[in-house]
Amino acid sequence: MLDVQRLVVFTGAGMSKDSGLDTFRDADGVWANNAPQDYASPEGFRRNPRTVWQWYTQRRRQMLEANPNAGHRAIAKLDTLLPHVTVITQNIDGLHQRAGNQRVLELHGSVHRYKCSKNCRGLPTLTPVPELTQEEPLLCPYCGALTRPDVVWFGEMLPADVWESAVVEIAVCDAVLVVGTSGVVEPAASLLWRAKNRRKSLVEVNPEPTLVSSIADVVLQGKAAEVVPTLVATLEANQAEDRGG
């Protein structure tokens, strides 16, 4: 990555697994004991808004108790080593921002925000939001409808502005570092195939082979918290050697 001027870091649930947060599709993941149609769909929210709100309140507490791991911190350090780094993440936990990354595109939203369930004005509210600890859904101050977590549920479109920015970043980047994603969740995963079609360099970090492995130029097998810091340390050492030479 020595010659890379613009880097995209594309992350999934495996990125935060080393911070103690469950992935979604592992045998012991989030959806193993929680039906997504009940907790991550507009229909589930309409059936039982209080239950869904409380479920996300608990998840938000877990995410706030988690800390950015060594992989998050290494990715944040890339901001100081390369001219332009953009994180495109499928995660909703906010750990990249807490680690220090400045440019983060959240494809699937954030558990730390809420919005009007009728989308009357979107009503994004940034963290810290003490009212999100309440056990009942809040009412939208504009139209009186229930509010809901500002996350993308099954059957919903990704935020248009975030998606468009992600497409642009993929188009103009030199390389993509893919960390902790299986490459099966669409349309997010299609960004990686866009990158491949545009002949961008792809480096994958994952404990197990994935769909991305078949198109990656380099596959580094291992945990995000172990492999990414080593990769970034190598980049830093090479830069220091070049300056010394």
Low-confidence segments, given as residue ranges, are none
Sheet with most strands: 6 strands, parallel
Oligomer: single chain
Shape: elongated
Tell me the radius of gyration. 19 Å
What is the CATH superfamily classification of the largest domain?
Answer: TPP-binding domain
Sheet with the most strands: spatial strand order: 3-2-1-6-7-8
Mean pLDDT: 89
**Which CATH architecture of the largest domain is right?**
3-Layer(aba) Sandwich
Q: Output the number of helix runs.
A: 9
Task: Please state roughly what percent of the residues sit in beta strands, choosing from under 5%, 5-15%, 15-25%, 25-35%, 35-45% or over 45%.
Answer: 15-25%
Structural account:
The protein is of the alpha/beta class and 245 residues long. The chain has 2 domains: 1-21 and 69-108 and 158-245, Rossmann fold (3-Layer(aba) Sandwich); 22-65 and 113-151, SIR2/SIRT2 'Small Domain' (2-Layer Sandwich), CATH 3.30.1600.10. Helix content is 37%, strand content 18%. The strands form 2 sheets. The protein has a 6-stranded parallel beta sheet, sandwiched between helices. Helix 5 runs parallel beside helix 9 and helix 7 (160-172) packs parallel to helix 8 (190-197). The mean pLDDT is 89.
Secondary-structure map with pairings?
Blueprint: E1 6-11, H1 13-17, H2 36-39, H3 42-47, H4 49-65, H5 70-81, E2 84-89, H6 95-99, E3 104-106, E4 109-116, E5 147-151, H7 160-172, E6 175-179, H8 190-197, E7 201-206, E8 218-221, H9 224-244
Parallel strand pairs: 1-2, 1-6, 2-3, 6-7, 7-8
Antiparallel strand pairs: 4-5
Helix pairs in contact: 5-9, 7-8
